[in-house]
User: Fold this.
Amino acid sequence: MKFQFKSKFKPAGDQPEAIAKLVAGLKKGFRHQTLLGLTGSGKTFTMAKIIEAAQKPTLVISHNKTLAAQLYGEFKQFFPDNAVHYFVSYYDYYQPEAYIPQTDTYIEKETSINEEIDRLRHAATQSLINRKDVLIVASVSCIYGLGERADYEAMSVKFSAGQKIKRNELLRQLVKIQYERDDKQFYRGQFRVKGEMIDVHLATGEAVVKIIMAGDVIEKISLSPFSPLLSRRGAGGEVGEAETKSIAILPAKHFMTPENKMKEALKNIRAELEIRLKELKKQNKIIEAYRLDKKTNYDLEMIEQVGYCNGIENYSRHLSGRTPGSPPATLLDFFTNDYLMFMDESHVTIPQVRGMYAGDQSRKQTLIDFGFRLPSARDNRPLDFKEFNKRINQVIYVSATPQDYETRKSDQVVEQIIRPTYLLDPEIEVRPTASQVPDLIEEIKKRTDKGQRVLVTTLTKRMAEELADYLKEKGIKVQYLHSEVATLERIDILRDLRQGKYDVLVGINLLREGLDLPEVSLVAILDADIGGFLRNETSLIQTAGRAARHAEGKVIMYGDTITPAMRYAIKETTRRREKQIAYNKKHGLTPRTIETKFHEKII
Assistant:
């Protein structure tokens, strides 16, 4: 199936030229290109039109889960009939395994996995295996180890109508690919048995496979969309049920190893353990050797007995049969060689991708040195930047403020400054900090009286929470937004702001790049003259851009001095604004506030 773009809007402003140039670049074989698109210039629309023209499996990488969710919602609207998926880290809470030598403190890995996000990850990888019209919106978690695609596919089990197989053997095969039996709850990744009838709730959570046996023969296989009602009643006669001649069921977990590989892996882990124990004892690290011996043997026993252990990813190099130092398999390996990548907000996403490897290796080395992990644990890691670049086929960097890296690397940089709505960059005003909060409240009231929304950025989480509490006391409908708010809850907060449950959002870094909030007419930047990355040139331009989707958009920077970063942001915004005014005057155009639908909920 092909990508089929659907929208009532046509390319306008600088979009037609940008689309044409970037598509031409793809056809010429350009490996790196940059789209310099202002906030509200319709960058996502432009990306969607390029995807339609290219007709290649596409990966869009975003630097945080909230923006990834927003992009996912937009692309779902543009491509309702295609496989659009959301792939981010499935941890709501993640405390990595670590050791602090100074205090002799071992911190065990502690996680809280979001089942819904795990379901979405499985839906993404299974679409990449089964379809070509796939668009994955991912966070930087896509550069972390995921398990080998070849093993994931090889471990799938296939059943066909008329196939001779004993019922217990069929159930054993499901258990082998990490499906669990539960005849009562019937959650995703589980199966239940009722006489000759077997229901399998697929790991994607989207469908249920029903297998009906007649003795030792599969009589019938059918597939039906999952409904909560299915978890409370028996199979048969469900709405949307479709009979099929055969079905291939992929594993319930991404980290899967075939039996022949598993035996070899366990042998190699034991061999590495023996070598490492000798090294530690030679260094007179008796405690470390004892610790490593006990921990590794416990893990090996768990893997042999149940096929899994806590922290199994630390043995991923052996389980996948990789050589020491070789990169892990990631989501990028699930794509075909000829695929398209976009790096959204590349000025933030690229440094994030670049920085993941070093931090991970430093933590792992300490664990290895003190006997908590084997040296091969180093190879359970994200890709380094060189490895990531090798896996790029064709990439388009997308940013309102691309950095030197993108512009130097690109075969062409395409500007998109004139918005399809002909909106201007917002006016920027600098006001003193002495009475910034009372002044802010007055400005909020002016906007809320018109049904408009306000964003306020502070320097710390504590300031965001305290300011939100103070504004609430003043009768303002306000909510704070920062990294401690759960991923899917953040998305709901943004929807609630647009729908009027809140009039004001107070945040820090999450209110900087990319958020599509056309109801916002005012952005207030508190303590704009305090130095740091939250108040540098790029951050100030990006934050100001949140007000660029409204015809009355305005930015107030509260500061007692005008820093070089403030001066640059004001100068650059004024330059763009003047260019936009001249274009509108020449063509007799009137700016209009952007109108976008509320994105459907991910869950």
Summary: Residues 128 and 392 are 17 Å apart (CA to CA). Confidence is low (pLDDT under 50) at residues 229-237.
